[in-house]
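Researcher: Here's the sequence for the chain we discussed earlier.
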Amino acid sequence: MTSHRYALRAPQDTPGSWKTYLGLAAIMAFSAFPVYWMFVIATSTDEAVTQMPPSVIPGNQLLVNLNEVFTLQDVYFTASLINSFITALTITVATLFFCSLAGFAFAKLRFRGRNALMVVVILTLTVPNQLGVVALYIVMGKLQWNGTLLAVIAPGLVSAFGVFYMRQFIAHAVPDELVESARIDGALTMRVYWNIVLPAIRPALAVLGLLTFVMAWNDFQWPLITLNGTEFPTSMVALSDLASGNYVIYRRVLAGAFVATVPLIVLLLIGGRQLVRGIMEGAVKS
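Model: Thanks. This is the structure I predict for it:
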């Protein structure tokens, strides 16, 4: 009788065993420990950092360490956080717009060469970003953008993964009949995109937006190359400046890393449920 009652339940309503919860708790603790350890070092003194065995209890030097991070010359940590926010937000908004628009075109519009262009987009995913760094630096130099945030923002305005992901989601989430009925009513292509497609793909937009923001915030290689030696670093470049030198003060580095991690933690806490929902809906639709 009990097994019959559980068989009628949805999978998400079936209670897990204690082993399941124990395993999930262990995985969560293992995943969160690096962040906790970073916080412990960020609140410690130099002596506490090097003591053996290491202390796992936070200290009381967080404000002191943060004050040193934000007041260090040639690091520009406050400006780097602002620059990272501007860069990540701009790239995220642009990626959501351009990728959803391109995904709508590939999924619902009929034009010559559509499949061939989609194959080209997918093939670009196999090319490592490092191969295009030299050419990208030369192009940014000709545009006189090297050393500015434009050089960081422009290459990330659209992504091949975003186009492919949105194309796949729109193809299943938006029925062709709905698009055709809107056209019969006189709606133009952009009206169909804005009033029909966008409301239907909100979960996918949330997933792509979160992933894009995190990747843009954590981007290090290209900002390091194009912003090297300027007063406009991003947070990852500023952290590399904190870790440079003959003697690395780890409490400063990890205090800065903790501050740079807090926005991502807050973002994932706020949008985590939407992220899971978008992934699950995409899996069900596919």
